[in-house]
Amino acid sequence: MGANIKVTEGSVEGYAPSGLHGATIHMQIPSVTGTMDLMMAACLASGVTYIYNSAREPEVTDLAHCLISMGAMIQEGVGPGPITIFGCDKPLLPYRYKVMEDRIEAEAFLILGAMAGNPLTVHGCTPKYQTALIEKLRAVGAQIDIRKYSIIVRKAICPVAVDIQTGPYPAYPSDLQPQFMTLLSVVRGTSRITEAVFENRFNQSGGLIAMGADICVDGEDAVISGVRELSGSMVAATDLRVGASLVIAAIVVKGITVISSAQHIDRGYYGLQRKLEKIGVTVTRSLGFDEGAGKVDSRVAVPALCSRV
């Protein structure tokens, strides 16, 4: 597209002295962020841009609708077809647009609901986007009640092991793999997770093992042998998805779990403490020596009535 990219330690600098121009781009992997960046750049590039092997996540479609509302000309391909963007020679227009819900956050609460003692209702979600997770939760034994814009999940009486393999949408999302590992840690039997999207995506295993989980990681595979229960421990949220998996574990285990580096969780789960307190979980935040820390008191039970998030 005509850009010059300079990568230095800690920064990436991009230059387009003559402006950007349309191009035919074949993505090596269907990256969501990569697809979105290319779409936005192509909107104001001269000429037409074709993006092949693009991500098909609902968030990509939502961004396309937003850009179109601002004056961009975008055609989404069907099946293997490319996303086609016709560059504009004038700035996009201001527009008030409501972005879609955070699909991964909603699904994290669904996993929590499959482990908690009382029914959990997640409002403001679009069930058709949660199909892959719902199938796996039902396979574990959880009861799922689907409404138009909400989902009610009830804990499985005798949860059983299942296998999952991550992949691009509509396959099971890699961003939800760490949270599902928490659930599989306490089901009956042995489960296998195959991570087919990202490398080194099992960082949550160390924290779960510290809490009593039986997990063996070998490359892109993780084998989880379910245990009766987990226990509170000192663990670290090395990234936001790891943090979410540890928060879920902390809520259902015995004892108090202290999660350090909690600022990573805040980056991807807005107002999480307020939402957890709404369903009866006590969360105490404190500042460590050089980083935030969140304390989750898992001894507080979820209210007997159907909880709402």
Automatic annotation (TrEMBL):
Keyword Plastid: no
Subcellular location: Cytoplasm
Catalytic activities: phosphoenolpyruvate + UDP-N-acetyl-alpha-D-glucosamine = UDP-N-acetyl-3-O-(1-carboxyvinyl)-alpha-D-glucosamine + phosphate
Pathway(s): Cell wall biogenesis; peptidoglycan biosynthesis
Record-linked Pfam families: EPSP_synthase (PF00275)
E.C. no: 2.5.1.7
Gene Ontology molecular function, alphabetical: UDP-N-acetylglucosamine 1-carboxyvinyltransferase activity
Domain Enolpyruvate transferase: 1-276
InterPro entries (alphabetical): Enolpyruvate_Tfrase_dom (IPR001986), Enolpyruvate_Tfrase_sf (IPR036968), MurA_subfamily (IPR050068), RNA3'P_cycl/enolpyr_Trfase_a/b (IPR013792)
Keywords: Cell cycle, Cell division, Cell shape, Cell wall biogenesis/degradation, Cytoplasm, Peptidoglycan synthesis, Transferase
Gene Ontology CC terms: cytoplasm
One BP annotation, GO: regulation of cell shape
Broadest EC class assigned to this enzyme: transferase
NCBIfam families hit by this protein: PRK09369.1
Protein family according to the UniProt entry: Belongs to the EPSP synthase family. MurA subfamily.
Protein's name according to its UniProt entry: UDP-N-acetylglucosamine 1-carboxyvinyltransferase
